[in-house]
Amino acid sequence: MSDVSSDKAAGKGSGERFSSLGFIMSAIGSAIGLGNLWKFPYITGLYGGAAFVLIFIVCLLIVGMPVLLAEMAIGRAGRGNASSSFRNLASSGRWGFFGFIGVFGSFMITSFYSVIAGWTLHYALNSFTGKLYNGTDYNVQFETFTSGYSPLGWQFLILGLSAWVIARGVSGGIEKFNKVLIPALAVVLLILMGRAMTLPGAGEGIDFFLMPDFSKLTGESVLVALGQAFFSMSVGMGVMITYGSYVQKEQSLGRATVAVTGGNLLYAIIAGLIVFPTTFSFGLEPAQGPGLVFVVLPAAFSAMPLGAAFGGLFFVLLAIAAFTSILSLLEVPVAFAMDRWKWSRVKATAWTAAVCFIVGVPSALSVGGVLSGITIFEKNIFDSLDFVTSNVLLPVGGLVVTLFIGYKSKRAMEEAGLNGPLLKIWVFLLRVIIPPMIVLIFLYSIGVI
Ligand code: PFF
């Protein structure tokens, strides 16, 4: 199937470019998100601690990194959006359609991811002012908040801020903000880690998080690690293709891949070193997702000296992590609209963010709100969207990227800049190892195996 001559000369794309550091920071900003802070720690605790971290690292090495590099290479070689980059490289429009899955998927993820990002702002504010700690039942507080209409306002604010940044462009907006926010995130993480690890009884939490327990390693933990490697590296949704299209010719994509993977892993592990010592130190039970950060942790902060400030900082941390991920997700449909309809960046951003907000309203109102009664396969609207995008669109998008470089576009393969044994290993992984692994994650997550 490999056909060099069918690779069309790549277009120049929008002409917008990242600086070298700006690209690394923006890609790290995309990767680090709610996935690191509320999912990774919990599944690690559940599936075998350090033993699971080891499996996760293996998944990053053999699946996450190769696919990340593949996406960046497709973007830079194709110099188009998540759909047209494929079309520019292959002569058939079919590949452009496959690429469109990413455009659609990232738009849909933004619509509900921004709901949670909005919640974190509300919680940050209420923690700093102390209002969060007036009552004691955090479950009731959470349900009262999410069943009302105010989450819509917060979601609107987050999308509005994202649109404002994106409308300023790649170097004047996206990279400028990531270059400030990612180091800020590191500072806040380190402060919170210092606090968490010095709490009395913190050791128990560290044990829960990292104590290697190989008996908990099952086929299931491997599949969970694989799925997490995908989501957390932001691959499969065209994000890294879109960002890759703004990378300068001279930049090493291999080095960028290593930096993004390392940064992402480091932040995930530090997140665990905050969450579990804090939870266990106050005799609380860990949970996953919303339950962990909006119910369990506030109870811990309320019992901690200066808890309102630390709690506030924690929610700011979540907000920043989610925000920089949203910038990357929203840029995918924005870049598509700019290319497809020849819209200006400002117009494309305004429309995309506005439509995304409207599409996100049902998600925001379905977590305990007026629309919570509507269920699809026993899941509310929010959970259904999360399920379909993470478990169906993401693997399909990843498979498209893998097969495209593995079997279709020599031009994109060369763009990665690998040679010698590294190139051989990479191509072998993309052709032989990764496709069946993706199919396995897919079958597992839709409940077939
Ligand atoms: N990587 C982000 C996280 O871990 O929260 C989420 C994400 C961003 C997923 C971009 C997919 C994506 F394309």
TrEMBL record:
It comes from the Bacteria. The chain crosses the membrane at residues 21-38, 50-74, 95-116, 152-170, 182-202, 222-244, 265-284, 304-330, 351-376, 388-407, 428-447. GO terms for molecular function: symporter activity. Keywords: Membrane, Symport, Transmembrane, Transmembrane helix, Transport. It is found in: Membrane. One of its GO terms (cellular component) is membrane. SUPFAM superfamilies: SNF-like (SSF161070). InterPro entries: Na/ntran_symport, SNS_sf, YocR/YhdH-like. It is a multi-pass membrane protein. Its main location: membrane. PROSITE patterns: NA_NEUROTRAN_SYMP_1, NA_NEUROTRAN_SYMP_3. It holds the Pfam family SNF. The keyword Metal-binding does not apply. CDD domains: SLC6sbd_Tyt1-Like. Belongs to the sodium:neurotransmitter symporter (SNF) (TC 2.A.22) family. PANTHER family: TRANSPORTER. This is Transporter. It comes from Paenibacillus lutrae.
